[in-house]
Sequence to fold (69 residues):
Amino acid sequence: MQLSTLFLTVSVKFGVTVPKQSVGLPTIRELEILHDRVLSKLKLGKQASGYKTAHKVLNRFIAELIGLV
Fold:
């Protein structure tokens, strides 16, 4: 699965707004805040498999974004 497809899937499933225009990459701190916000909206315990999967996906996505800088 391509990264753009993965992000779109995650954004649709978890109700995250995807910007239409490129405005530059957010800072690492902003990405961490977004990561935490998305996970908190899942309404799952930290031991739930869905939470763990989303956590891994978000970490991987952020790592890919940081790698682009």
Residues 49-68 form the longest helix (20 residues). Residues 14 and 38 are 7 Å apart (CA to CA).
